[in-house]
Amino acid sequence: MEYLKLLVELAKAIAWPSAVFGLGFMFRSDVRELFPRLKKAGPAGLEFDPARQVLAAPSKQLKDLPGFPERSPVIAKVETSLHSELELMDPDKRVDLLIRHLAVARLAWNFEQIYRTLFGSQIRALRALHSSGGKTSRAESAAYFDQVKSEFPQFYEKNTFDEWVRYPISTGLITSTSDEIAITDFGEEFLKYIDEKGLSESSKTY
């Protein structure tokens, strides 16, 4: 009976390492994609390429950047964290990944600024453009503004339709011709952003 218990415990001890190495062998190509420094994956374990490991490790020492304000402790902490995350990335893809993150961050900053300065009626008009296939006649847009003006007569008393659409045009949310108003790809992306962030035009004035 004691021998039987010993065999059972031994089987349990061997089962997990064997399963892990087995999965590593079966999905070795996927594992290599996740870990660019991985040289070999098999039943014997994982083997990393030391040369690539040195290449993949960026310096964690934060360098002075002429032309930039002095980094605060919080910025320094974030930069150090980003350097650590870079170690997990394929060196050949780092620039593309960083550019993607920068593009997303820059768009988010622009969208936040635009959302803060748009009127609620302008966002509602943008949604109406989206729902109508992306464009409408200038006459229909002007009629919409007249309706908004009737709802907020004191605020829009001295404003014209051209003044009302000027800011959405200047920010790139819409385009305007003598006959047509159309939402841009930038405008579509803006609507997607505020929906994902739970930002509502109902909380905006006018």
Structure explained in plain terms:
61% of the residues lie in helices and 9% in strands. The strands form two sheets. It has a three-stranded antiparallel β-sheet. A two-stranded antiparallel ribbon has the order 1-2. The chain is built from nine helices and five strands. The chain folds into three domains: 2-56, no CATH class; 58-89; 114-203, Arc Repressor Mutant, subunit A, CATH 1.10.10. The chain has 206 residues and is mainly alpha-helical. A hairpin with a 3-residue loop joins strand 4 and strand 5.
Topology:
Blueprint: H1 2-26, H2 28-34, E1 38-42, E2 45-48, H3 50-56, H4 73-86, H5 94-117, H6 120-131, E3 135-137, H7 138-151, H8 161-170, E4 174-176, E5 180-183, H9 185-196
Antiparallel strand pairs: 1-2, 3-5, 4-5
> Could you say what the CATH architecture of the largest domain is?
Orthogonal Bundle
**Tally of helical segments:** 9
Largest sheet: 3 strands, antiparallel
Mean pLDDT: 80
List keywords for this structure.
single chain; 206 residues; mainly alpha; Arc Repressor Mutant, subunit A; 3 domains; 3-stranded antiparallel sheet; two-stranded antiparallel ribbon; 5 strands; 61% helix; 9% strand; elongated; disordered N terminus
Could you write a compact summary of the structure shown?
The chain has helices at 2-26, 28-34, 50-56, 73-86, 94-117, 120-131, 138-151, 161-170, 185-196; strands at 38-42, 45-48, 135-137, 174-176, 180-183. With 206 residues, the protein is mainly alpha-helical. The protein starts with a helix and ends in a 10-residue tail after the last helix.
